[in-house]
């Protein structure tokens, strides 16, 4: 579902459901990922995407991650817009292996490559042995 704002700004609000796979290392690596997102974007200016990611490991256990990102476009190489973004995520519950776990204040960011995107989450989950830091790429897809 998408709302395009009139007036020539390119501003849009997009509801998405996308699927992909988690990459990287740590307890969510290799999980199937579904994004339920709301993206409020003005191209070339900035945006506030946010939502939930559902990570499902092969055993069927699920982790529910709430995330948000604040993005701002600045002039990049050759005057092309460059995205600067920073965000946060938190574990909002889970089943099986993920039940009762808590997350630290984790960072999240987006990267774009020719229309494809990748979300990177960095942080810790407890009570795994120690507090493993992991990097995970969520669903890759196109708007």
Helices and strands in order:
Elements: E1 2-4, E2 12-21, E3 23-24, E4 32-42, E5 46-56, E6 62-75, E7 81-94, E8 102-103, E9 106-113, E10 116-126, E11 133-137
Antiparallel strand pairs: 1-2, 2-4, 3-11, 4-5, 5-6, 6-7, 7-9, 8-10, 9-10, 10-11
How would you explain this protein's 3D organization?
- With 143 residues, the protein is an all-beta fold.
- It has one domain (20-137).
- Helix content is 0%, strand content 64%.
- The chain starts with a strand and ends in a 6-residue tail after the last strand.
- Mean pLDDT is 81; it is low at 128-143.
What labels describe this entry?
mainly beta; 11 strands; 143 residues
Mean pLDDT: 81
Radius of gyration: 16 Å
Strand tally is: 11
- Provide the β-strand percentage band: over 45%
Element order: H for helix, E for strand: EEEEEEEEEEE
Structural class: mainly beta
**Mind summarizing the main beta sheet?**
11 strands, antiparallel
**Count of folded domains:** 1
